[in-house]
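Suppose you are handed only these lines of text.
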Amino acid sequence: MTISAIAAIGEAITAIEAQIGPVRAPLGMILGSGLGGLADQITHQRALPYDQIPHLPTSSVAGHAGQLVCGTWQGREVVVLSGRVHSYEGHSASDVVLPVRLLAGLGVHTVIVTNAAGAVNPDYQAGDLMVLSDHINLQANSPLIGANDARLGPRFPDMTEAYDKELRALTLQIGRKHGLRVHEGVYAAVLGPAYETPAEVRMVRILGADAVGMSTVPEVIAARHMGMAVLGLSCLTNLAAGLSGGTLNHDEVKEVAGGATAGMIGLIAAVVRAMPPLTLRAAFRAQFEAPSAL
Ligand code: HPA
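From them, the structure of the protein bound to hypoxanthine can be written out as follows.
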């Protein structure tokens, strides 16, 4: 990317609003594998494919069809990124986080990030859900590398509470009330695209991970840099390599993700209904609007 993130996002917002009208939603979501069904439930829907949004990277992975969808869901105004790009597709870390920066640029206060992951904790089963309590970045990369733009956030952002404490507690409480198998755990992000070796899975377990996946962490780093609140949710589509006696393939991951979709969407719906009111970050948003001619 040759222009600044602020300028790129400003151009993206201008193009989006020219095509689908004003977007004013304090709640954003980034949906991973298999959760496109949530976007279909949005009413008063206005949608735009990523390839019609300037600067937004587009995904090449099956199950990650990319579009921005806004409208009303569970009684709230939402803006949803249905489909994401991954570092393993060859996108730079700063391109991978352009979508979450776009959400922040639109004024989003709280973002829900979902993914599919392999279970590393031996107490977990395929099909369980996990609320991210924390993460370990093993991607050997960061979207914040390079000159820091202080309009986005500080040079050295704090990551002590990357995942919002209240939202985590709310999600666990609601999940358990609904009888779902939902855990709270640490997500280790690797680069992929090869699944881990059994030795790597043993390593991430020793390091303190409960699940392993290939996404989410760049977006969460960028979201926290910009001061957004984050709720992270994993669908544990499989036991990580070496833990099941079998081998791994993407079709099975997609199949389990599909089967767990209803539970995951139901959980997110109940959490969204129970969340406290959110306020649009108007001042943050104003930074992305084209300066008016003097
Ligand atoms: N490893 C990494 N990423 C994944 C996995 C896994 O086992 N399952 C789904 N995404």
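What can we learn from it? The CA atoms of residues 118 and 240 lie 5 Å apart. The longest strand covers residues 229-239.
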